[in-house]
Design a protein that fits this description.
By secondary structure, this protein is mainly beta. A four-stranded antiparallel beta sheet has the order 1-2-3-4, with no helix packed on it. The chain has a four-stranded antiparallel beta sheet with strand order 5-6-7-8, with no helix packed on it. The chain has a four-stranded antiparallel beta sheet with strand order 9-10-11-12, with no helix packed on it. The protein is globular, with a radius of gyration of 16 Å. The model has no long low-confidence stretch (mean pLDDT about 90).
Length: about 190
């Protein structure tokens, strides 16, 4: 579908097309194509190190992981055309080595992994007001259920093998879904 030479990863289908991370000259950036994979357009700023795009439910905003401006990865958001209000995009996270952002289906929260735990934060709180959902860890790779009631994630608690877990959106009732010797990771929901 996407005919670009180099590293293409972190794909995500949207109603407006396909977003993905493209590695060019050792610099990751977020791109968007039309539904067929054509007309690729860079959404990231040329000097940014962006990846792991997560689109808001209305597909007007995108949360991305950026590693270009600080000593650790930070989640920012901007509009789908790459624009933002002010001189820089607004921070979603702060004080964490955040990764794998996932926008909630109702659009009010972004879940992410940091410091071996799963966190949620209001997308527009400028990095303040985060809430840790998990007690045990390490954990990674969050994904919201379509109804926003559940979060699925990978975990290797108690030095166990990578397994898939599910919990309520408030962190209650964490439950292991897989249990076998293979590494289970990058969980997702069927639409």
């Amino acid at each position: 579908l996407i005919a670009m030479v180099g590293g293409v990863f972190d794909p995500q289908w949207t109603h407006i097309g396909i977003s993905f991370t493209y590695l060019e000259d050792h610099r990751p950036s977020v791109w968007l194509t039309d539904e067929s994979g054509g007309n690729a357009t860079r959404v990231s700023r040329p000097n940014a190190y962006d990846r792991q795009a997560s689109w808001s439910p209305d597909e007007e905003k995108v949360a991305i992981l950026n590693t270009s401006g600080s000593d650790y990865p930070v989640v920012y958001w901007f509009f789908r055309d790459g624009s933002f209000v002010g001189s820089t995009p607004d921070q979603v996270t702060r004080d964490h080595r955040a990764h794998t952002p996932a926008w909630s289906p109702n659009g009010d929260l972004i879940a992410y992994a940091a410091s071996n735990h799963i966190w949620v934060i209001p997308w527009d709180a400028l990095g303040f007001g985060e809430e840790r959902l998990t007690v045990l860890g390490p954990n990674d790779d969050t994904n919201w259920s379509p109804d926003g009631e559940w979060i699925v994630y990978e975990s290797w608690q108690d030095n166990a093998n990578h397994e898939i877990y599910i919990m309520m959106a408030n962190g209650d009732s964490p439950t292991r879904l897989t249990n076998h010797p293979a590494l289970d990771f990058q969980p997702t929901w069927q639409p």
